[in-house]
């Protein structure tokens, strides 16, 4: 029995004491357990050595007899901590599904659910990348309802639930906390899809499908902005000029909207060229004249080809160009950080973004006016 003889009963007693107090045998590696007689034993190191000895099948200084193994099993000794933790997470996900009729969602505020959601997300990433993955893990994950069902949080399933919701309520104005009778948390999934839309992770076909059902993926702020931009366009068609003296159109104060919201979006480079043209026609002036700032015309440079591949009216237009032509979902923040010099490395090792010079802005406006 090697170095286990003589000390075995002492450590077993310490392990039982730890288990009774803590509820498990997951003893930290450096843990010292103090017994009733105030004798201290290095229980953490002993547990680690026992695990190692079992793994090496006796090819160590510790030799475990069948009686010893049975004694440890009776106490509830955990031989493989990583496997134990994995099984614990799987069981927690199963229990969560039973109580909520869905798997955990990453975007939720509850920290416990978020932790489980990241566990599921991490496992899916490894599996989807075709990296080596133990069969026993897959079998355990398969016991989590809908884990391998990609439709769980999909647009397809959401659309089916929207039809049920619309049939019952007569509209698609879904609130965050709403839940269908079948337990489907349609409000949470709706917000998740809005976040995916914001991060450019929905395909054009998915967006079109949602819009067909009357689902608006834009934030309330952007929705109101678009509504007022439409009003602005209608006003220009009637040759209305908005000014300090004439601020309203159809009982809506477009003057305040222009001097506050439009100004902010303009300075942040978030206005499309078409939107700039509408507002300038509405007020009869150039925006760079009244706001004292030049247009944030953005140049997209291909480092590999070493040339400007596109000149865009805004960061949003640059982002849209990259997505449509290269299939890359870059964020406004990623573009802005490179424009401001906070990030000096090319996006995906290829694309850089620069503000156009005053001369380039002038030429850009002339070219677009001519076209």
Topology:
Layout (H helix, E strand, L loop, with lengths): L7 H15 L10 E2 L5 E2 L1 H13 L10 H10 L5 H20 L10 H18 L6 H7 L13 H15 L16 H13 L5 H9 L7 H18 L10 E2 L2 E2 H14 L5 H11 L3 H4 L7 E5 L4 E6 L2 H12 L5 H8 L11 E5 L2 H13 L1
Antiparallel strand pairs: 1-2, 3-4, 5-6, 5-7
Helix pairs in contact: 4-5, 7-8, 10-12
Give a description of the structure:
The chain has 371 residues and is mainly α. 54% of the residues lie in helices and 6% in strands. The protein contains 16 helices and seven strands. The chain has helices at residues 8-22, 43-55, 66-75, 81-100, 111-128, 135-141, 155-169, 186-198, 204-212, 220-237, 254-267, 273-283, 287-290, 315-326, 332-339, 358-370, and strands at 33-34, 40-41, 248-249, 252-253, 298-302, 307-312, 351-355. The strands form three sheets. It has a three-stranded antiparallel beta sheet. Strands 1-2 form a two-stranded antiparallel ribbon. Helix 4 (81-100) crosses helix 5 (111-128), helix 7 packs across helix 8 and helix 10 packs across helix 12 (273-283). The longest helix has 20 residues, at 81-100. It is elongated, with a radius of gyration of 31 Å. The N and C termini lie far apart (90 Å). Mean pLDDT is 83; it is low at 1-5.
Oligomer: single chain
Approximate helicity band: 40-55%
Terminal-residue CA separation: 90 Å
- Major beta sheet, specifics? 3 strands, antiparallel
Number of helices: 16
Radius of gyration: 31 Å
List SSEs in N-to-C order: HEEHHHHHHHHHEEHHHEEHHEH
Short summary:
The chain is mainly alpha-helical and 371 residues long. Helix content is 54%, strand content 6%.
């Amino acid at each position: 029995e090697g170095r286990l003889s003589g000390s075995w009963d002492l450590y077993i007693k310490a392990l039982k004491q730890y288990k009774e107090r803590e509820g498990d045998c997951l003893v930290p590696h450096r843990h010292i357990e103090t017994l009733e007689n105030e004798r201290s034993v290095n229980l953490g190191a002993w547990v680690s050595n026992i695990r190692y000895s079992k793994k090496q099948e006796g090819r160590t200084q510790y030799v475990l007899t069948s009686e010893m193994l049975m004694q440890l099993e009776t106490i509830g000794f955990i031989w493989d901590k990583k496997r134990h933790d994995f099984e614990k997470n799987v069981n927690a996900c199963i229990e969560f599904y039973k109580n909520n009729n869905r798997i955990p969602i990453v975007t939720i505020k509850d920290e416990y659910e978020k932790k489980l959601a990241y566990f599921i997300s991490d496992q899916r990433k490894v599996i989807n990348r075709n990296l080596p993955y133990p069969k026993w893990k897959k079998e355990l994950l398969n016991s989590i309802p809908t884990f391998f069902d990609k439709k769980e949080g999909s647009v397809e399933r959401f659309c089916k639930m929207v039809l049920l919701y619309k049939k019952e309520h007569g509209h698609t104005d879904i609130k965050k906390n709403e839940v269908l009778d079948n337990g489907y948390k349609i409000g949470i999934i709706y917000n998740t899809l809005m976040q995916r839309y914001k991060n450019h992770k929905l395909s054009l076909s998915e967006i079109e499908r949602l819009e067909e059902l009357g689902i608006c993926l834009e934030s309330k702020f952007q929705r109101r902005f678009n509504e007022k931009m439409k009003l602005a366009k209608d006003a220009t068609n009637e040759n209305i000029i908005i000014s300090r003296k004439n601020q309203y159109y159809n009982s809506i104060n477009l003057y305040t909207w222009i001097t506050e919201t439009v100004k902010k979006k303009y300075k942040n480079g978030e206005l499309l060229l078409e939107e700039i043209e509408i507002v300038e026609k509405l007020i009869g002036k150039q925006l760079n004249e009244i706001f004292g700032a030049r247009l944030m015309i953005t140049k997209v440079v291909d480092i590999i080809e070493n040339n400007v591949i596109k000149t865009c009216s805004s960061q949003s237009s640059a982002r849209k160009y990259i997505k449509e032509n290269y299939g890359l979902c870059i964020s406004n923040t990623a573009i802005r950080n490179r424009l401001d010099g906070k990030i000096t490395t090319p996006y995906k090792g290829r694309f850089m973004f620069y503000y156009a010079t005053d001369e380039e802005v002038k030429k850009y406006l002339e070219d677009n006016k001519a076209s």
